[in-house]
Specification:
The complex is a heterodimer of chains A (123) and B (260). Chain A has a domain of 82 residues. Chain A is 50% helix and 19% strand. Chain A contains 4 helices and 3 strands; from the N terminus they run H-H-H-H-E-E-E. Chain A has a 3-stranded antiparallel β-sheet. In chain A, helix 3 packs antiparallel against helix 4. Chain B is of the alpha+beta class and 260 residues long. Chain B has one domain. In chain B, 28% of the residues lie in helices and 42% in strands. Chain B is built from 3 helices and 14 strands. In chain B, the strands form 2 sheets. In chain B, strands 7-6-5-4-1-10-14-9-8 form a 9-stranded mixed β-sheet, sandwiched between helices. Chain B has a 5-stranded antiparallel β-sheet with strand order 3-2-11-13-12, covered by helices on one side. The longest helix of chain B has 55 residues. Chain B starts with a helix and ends with a strand. The relative contact order of chain B is 0.17. The model of chain B has no long low-confidence stretch (mean pLDDT 88). The chains are: A alpha+beta (123), B alpha+beta (260). The interface between A and B is large, with 37 and 38 residues.
């Protein structure tokens, strides 16, 4: 009777192991294709330059002494911010109380639907 | 000891043919199992991956639209791969189409047809659409819908003047002709027309009415967005009441899809 030669059984075993590992590898690769498209959106959304621009304009316009002119400038800044930058902007300049180191108190309000920004500056 | 030796040496019950058959059967059963269960699972995962990639792609496209509208960028293009379905432009003149009507007590202010940039997944039977600046998904043959990314409607109460301003964006998707895409391609978009309406003292109560396309109904998503995120009140169904507002701003944009 021929003796059973079982020297090459590892080939069959390796076949099983390789095919099953390929199968699971396929699943893993399929899962990983969805990763890797996110952007740093939160950072991009923050309107830093818009706020800085508005702030600079407001601080400059606070030097206007004629009340009617100041109201015009205020309206213009609000309308331009709303139509161009899609942000609601309003501000108010009040005189600082007597004895204060500062001359004016400036309140700025900015809201573009995502970022709301409020500031009170002693100027 | 003698018994042991006998057991080791005696190979009268061992058959090479039976051993071969056993192993061969195992291999065949293995192949069969993988074909029967493994392959459909792989296909399903592929379909899911396609769908999730398209969800992200649609949000990327929405970001492009945000750049075009809120940031006044004139032109944007994005390359993307549309897998498992089609990306189609239904422009604002396509019929039937959903509509948004904004009205105050003195009558309708504007009626708007948003148009759609829509992905229809054939394999997953899912629809993902960009409608009026929002990314919405819904199953193809069932009711109900979910908003994946919200538009930017907002109300602002100014702490300085204590006045409330409500801003409603209407973003229309337009094209010169019906276009559709499958596979790798580039979506080219251009800002074509803007319209800006500011109503300083609207006759409160201001309402927004959404009339869905019955064949492509996203009313659940809009309902959830407006009543949960914006906290507006729905009465009657489909009509949403804004909180009392001092200034109503309606900004209308037209996005022209130049090519898919």
């Amino acid at each position: 009777m021929a003796r059973l030669n079982d020297d090459a059984q590892w080939i069959v075993l390796m076949g099983f192991i390789v095919s099953f590992s390929l199968f699971f590898l396929g699943i893993v690769i399929n899962q990983s294709t969805v990763v890797g498209q996110t952007t740093a959106e939160g950072v991009l959304e923050f309107p830093k330059n818009d706020i800085l621009d508005i702030r600079s304009e407001v601080l400059q316009s606070s030097k206007i002494t004629v009340a009617a002119d100041f109201d015009d400038v205020k309206k213009d800044i609000s309308s331009i911010a709303l139509s161009r930058k899609n942000a609601i902007v309003s501000f108010r300049v009040t005189q600082a109380p007597p004895g204060s180191t500062y001359t004016k108190i400036i309140d700025i309000h900015y809201n573009n639907g995502v970022t709301a920004y409020n500031e009170t500056t002693n100027y | 000891m003698r018994l042991c030796n006998n057991l080791e040496r005696d190979e009268r019950g061992v058959s090479e043919a039976i051993g071969f058959m056993l192993i061969f059967t195992l291999v065949i059963v293995g192949i069969g199992l993988v074909t029967l269960y493994g392959y459909p699972i792989l296909l399903q995962t592929q379909t899911n991956a396609d769908e999730r990639i398209m969800e992200k792609n649609m949000i990327v496209l929405q970001n492009d639209i945000k750049s075009l509208t809120y940031k006044s960028v004139p032109y944007k293009e994005t390359s993307l791969k549309v897998g498992g379905g089609f990306l189609t432009v239904y422009n604002t003149t396509f019929n039937p189409t959903p509509s948004f009507t904004i009205a105050d007590l003195s009558g309708p202010i504007t009626t708007f047809n948003p148009g759609q940039l829509q992905y229809e997944s054939v394999s997953a039977q899912q629809i993902i659409t960009i409608e009026n600046g929002a990314v919405i998904t819904r199953p193809m043959y069932e009711t109900g819908s979910v908003m994946l990314a919200e538009p930017r409607w907002f109300s602002d109460t100014d702490p300085i003047t204590s006045k409330t301003t409500s801003v409603i964006y209407l973003i229309g998707i337009n094209s010169t002709e019906m276009m559709s895409q499958a596979g790798v391609g580039t979506v080219r978009m251009q800002l074509s027309e803007t319209n800006y309406t500011e109503i300083s003292t609207p006759a409160n109560q201001v309402t927004v009415t959404y009339v869905p396309d019955p064949a492509n109904n996203f009313s659940v998503a809009w309902h959830n967005y407006i009543t949960n995120s914006l906290k507006w009140i729905e009465n009657p169904p489909g009509t949403y009441k804004l909180p009392t507002t001092d200034t109503l701003v309606i900004k209308r944009y037209d996005i022209m899809i130049k090519g898919l």
